[in-house]
Amino acid sequence: MYLRERVKMRKITILLFLTILIFLTSLLPNFAHHDFPVSKYYIKNEIVQVKASNIVCSIVWDYRGFDTLGEATVFFTAVSAIMALRRRR
Amino acid sequence: MIVLRTYVRFIAPFVALYGLYIATHGHLTPGGGFPAGIIMASAFIYIYLAFGKGLKVFSEEEIKILEGVAAIFLAGVGLLGAFIGVYFFQNVLPKGRLGEVISAGSLLPLNIAVSLKVFAGALLIVYCFLSKR
């Protein structure tokens, strides 16, 4: 009885999150119709501000350096998880 | 086995050199720290796969130390921006001329640091999965 209710609740929760996700996806701009001001800003000012000919690299390490530190931390976490898994054996 | 070992002996230095090139030219050409680290690690993975345990170029302890040092270097360059400039990961180092290797401020040291870190991590994962216990 209790288990059945829990399964029901779980299904309702999944449906709710799916609805929210689909709604939020519909708010995204159309494919190939991106018109973000931030991308125009990067293309216009990168060559003066950072002076790197690889714009992607300058966005990754200059404008969004903190995000990339998090990315490196994710990789570090994966490595330490694998090390920990092996130690258990 | 002989074919594999001869091929690895021929190709591994070039792969490592190509990884170094991708790391040091990350801000000029397509690429960057992450793929460069994987390419550099793949050279040593070739050697490990072809020659077995007898020819680990780096031991596991050295790799662990390298990963820690690279992480500290990475965070240190970020903190340099916080101390000299205003915010974390600010590009405070002098920016040279466009298109030169030593230019674009802190992008070059950051690329090298993250390539070393990914190199150490990928190699450590392979050592973990392939070493028998």
How does the SSE layout of this entry go?
The complex is a heterodimer of chains A (89) and B (133).
Chain A: H1 2-26, H2 37-49, H3 55-63, H4 65-88
Chain B: H1 2-24, H2 33-51, H3 60-84, H4 107-130
Key structural traits:
heterodimer, A: 89 residues, mainly alpha, 0% strand, flat, B: 133 residues
Describe this structure in words.
The complex is a heterodimer of chains A (89) and B (133). Chain A has 89 residues and is mainly alpha-helical. Chain A has four helices and no strands. Chain A has one domain. Helices cover 80% and strands 0% of the residues of chain A. In chain A, α3 crosses α4. The longest helix of chain A has 25 residues. Chain B has 133 residues and is mostly helical. Chain B starts with a helix and ends with a helix. Chains A and B meet through α3 and α4 of A and α3 and α4 of B.
Task: Write a brief structural summary.
Chain A is mainly alpha-helical. Chain A is built from four helices and no strands.
Outline of chain B: flat
Q: How many structural domains can be distinguished in the coordinates of chain B?
A: 1
Mean pLDDT of chain A: 83
Order of helices and strands of chain A: HHHH
Could you give a short account of the major beta sheet of chain A?
A: none
